[in-house]
Amino acid sequence: MKPTTWLGPWQCLWTLMPWALMGIALAAPAYGQEPENVPVKSSEQASSPTLSQALEAAWQRSLEASLSRGRQARASADQTVSQSWFAGVPAIRLGQREGLTGDPAAGRETEVAFVLPLWRLGQRAADALAAQSQSGWALAFAQAERLRLAGRLRETAGALQLADVNMHQAQRQAEALGQLAVDVQRRVRAGDLAPADSLAARAEWLSAQSQVSSARQALGMQQAKWRMLTGLPPFKFQASLAPKLSQIPEAHPELLLVSATVDLAQRRADLARVQPMDSPELTLGMRQERPGQGTGPQSSVVMAIRMPLGGQVYQQPRIATALSELDVAKTQVQRTRERLEADLELAQSELNQSLNQLQAERERASLLGERARLIGKSFRAGETALPEMLRALAAAASAESAYAREQINHQLAIARLEQALGFVP
Question: What does the alpha-carbon distance between residue 328 and residue 13 come to, in Å, rounded to a whole number?
Fold first, then answer.
């Protein structure tokens, strides 16, 4: 045999060896890992929106955004009216008077005049302040609505994360029981276990498959709710620290809204006192008279003022309504503060309880996981029965699921505390 013939295949092998080693090196990190420990791809991380982005998207899709834009447009229009020269719409008045019909010597009188509604003393300034207060109230209302929408987003994101965790835990449990069923079937064929054990293991695996389907359906429902609310991909809770504040900040959107409501009610009450039912009117015009009998026309300037009298009686219902709204707004300030303080106390209590529960579930999951590992080792050695192994796997899976859910609950408790403090993403 020629040396070149013998060395040919080995030279090809040495040529392909670096490429094979590179492929093994790239595949090695993913081999044998659990599904949830596989690192998330950068494209998936980029597709996950932040809570601020989700809030902005949900706000643009919400009915509250349209209402807010309408209120701000109304406030802007009221400000434009308060800056006008007249209290109402100016009008033009045309008139003509003639003598007896058919009398050639009859006179004729023609008048052209402008009718200008006037502001009462202090009315224009009060109207401008009321319009400015309404603009501030519209902005405060929009911020409060964004905070309420952020609360809905936080709750929806928490439910979505819990459904996602439940599905992944159900998948892990199904995979573990599937591997156990294969192992039991192998040992049944070898004569180490009874056929009944194989049936029991397969039944448990089928039950786990059913739970996976239910968990996947629940996840799909939560994803649909999130998409309807935001139109964005699912949101992932990021680990964050709880705020250190223990009191409601004065910049809380709810407090700013009730304060703006009180200010607006006060301005409207002041305006109701100075705004009459009917505005005074100034008339300016020209009048031309033809007396007749061959006399030439005569022109004159017309100036008149119309001043309503006794309007205070008719203003009383509006003043009473404005004062009633002011009293309700002042009462609402105290009630809102009490409600926010109660919500903050409840959120802090839930956070403390969640932290304690998280620590307990972490230790419980660790203990039961180690117990399941030891019992599994004993089962493979033939020292433990299958029912005991199944109970150990179920307990470990339940503890691990509870720990994963408690992690989400802890982040949700932090989000609820931020909501109670009025933090808008």
Answer: 89
Strand order in the sheet with 108-117: 91-98, 108-117, 281-290, 298-306
* The overall pTM is greater than 0.70: yes
Read off the pLDDT of residues 384-415 as tens digits, 9 standing for 90 and up.
787 787 788 888 888 888 888 888 888 889 98
Give which of 166, 167, 158 is closest to 403, Cα–Cα: 166
Mean pLDDT of 306-323: 78
Tell me the two tokens of residue 370: 């180690």
Average pLDDT of the chain is: 79
